[in-house]
Amino acid sequence: MQIEEIQRALREENLDGWLFFDHHQRDPLAYRILNLGGARVVTRRWYYLIPAQGEPKGLVHAIESGVLAGLPGHMQVYSSWAGQTDGITTLLEGCRRVAMQYSPNCAIPYVSLVDGGTLELVRSTGVDVVSSANLIQLFESRWTAEQLEMHLEAGRRVDRVRAGAFQKIGAALRAGETITEWQVNRFVREEFAKAGLTTDHGPIVGVNAHMSDPHYEPQAEGSLPIRKKDAVLLDMWAKLDKPGAVFYDITWTGYCGSDAPSALRKVFEIVRGGRDRAIERVKHAISNSQVIQGFEVDDAARGYITEHGFGEYFIHRTGHSIGEEVHGTSANMDNLETHDDRRIIAGTCFSIEPGVYLPEFGIRSEVNMYVGSGEAIVTGEIQRELVHIE
Predict the structure, then answer these.
(1) Residue 12 confidence (pLDDT)
(2) Are 73 and 7 in the same domain?
(3) What residues form DSSP beta bridges with 250?
């Protein structure tokens, strides 16, 4: 745990401390940031304060007094409700503003992990509680050089599987064989396993109207066959099956034939344009050392799609943070589902995936962007044209 770096960040944010709290391991961010690894029994509440100045300190229950073992600082012990209340007051002496895993109006649910009652309890001591969202980015979301390399390698493998999935569909169509969304889903998962990749669920394999359900996932029963003149969407995400690995997450679309309908081509081109405008917005800001916030990237993609008459059919944010979970904890590219005003910082990765969803079909085009020092890059292959599955 980088206490000195955390304290420097607290002073820059004009905060008196960062207060961590947990009960029954509800806040995984706290355990990761504090490096509280290993099996720990947590049936009682604990608190741990990293002050902007001075030594950290904690408050633990008598029957689990070792729950924060390994962390620096004095641990005050309580057993009663009154002892807990008094202990929090003592813990926060000298503090006026502290950060917790909280987000006003739950604007950023990935960070909003402290319950309302605990916030009331802490605020009853006279302390103002603010969101730790910016701190989470700094101390939980940034990738190491090794994680970036694992992401790039996962991307190479996932891109091969994606190409193979389209080829498998084409081979079945040429042979006059039936192939379903579910069969392609199983093919992808099998190829992931062969390639040393792991994922928690997915992939999305959608045909025609199913493409317009952004979280559609086929099942063995009710899966549609893929036929000639069908449109197909593949959304797949995976990471290397190694500790600390981070995800790679992409969406591509194709058409089962050589000459896609003009309506399909038109929507693809508009979605591609929105995607590319967002990419360029990020690249320009980072290369010119400009501050850029998540909502501004969403505005870029959404603005382009709206200009071309399809804004009402773009029903989700432009992108999400990516980490050891496919949906990470740094800035999202969002000014629709919420107004994410967090800065995009070096060492983080996110998706850019605008989409247009019509009754007959939907198009989404997804890439991943990594922000380094003075440069932002797309980390894998970029779809430029509809895949013609012949």
Answers:
(1) 96
(2) yes
(3) 236
DSSP tag of 319? B
Considering the domain architecture, whether residues 149 and 101 belong to the same structural domain is answered as no
pLDDT band at 40 (very low <50, low <70, confident <90, very high): confident
Indicate the pLDDT class of residue 37, thresholds 50, 70 and 90.
Answer: confident
Measure the CA–CA gap between 274 and 301, rounded to whole angstroms.
4
CA distance 78 to 47: 11
Neighbours of 386 (CB within 10 A): 19
Contact 215, 353 (CB under 8 A): no
Query: Do 225 and 205 touch, CB atoms closer than 8 A?
Result: no
Distance, CA of 312 to CA of 302 (rounded, Å): 10
The pLDDT of residue 104 is: 94
Angle 128-132-138 from CA coordinates, rounded to 5°: 145
**CA 260 from chain center: how many Å?**
33
Tracing tokens 């007959």 back to the chain, one arrives at 360
The pair of three-digit structure tokens given for residue 388, joined into one six-digit string: 């013609």
Same domain, 213 and 294: yes
Number of domain units in the chain? 2
What are the two backbone dihedrals, phi and then psi, of residue 387, each rounded to the nearest 5 degrees? -75, 125
Give mean pLDDT, residues 60-80.
96
Domain hosting 57: range is 3-140
- Measured in whole angstroms, the distance separating CA 51 from the mean position of its chain's CA atoms is 28
Quote the CA–CA distance of 272 and 284 in Å, as a whole number.
18
Pairing of strands 376-378, 367-371: antiparallel
Domain boundary (116, 140, 164) is at 140
Looking at the fold, whether 21 and 87 belong to one and the same domain comes out as: yes
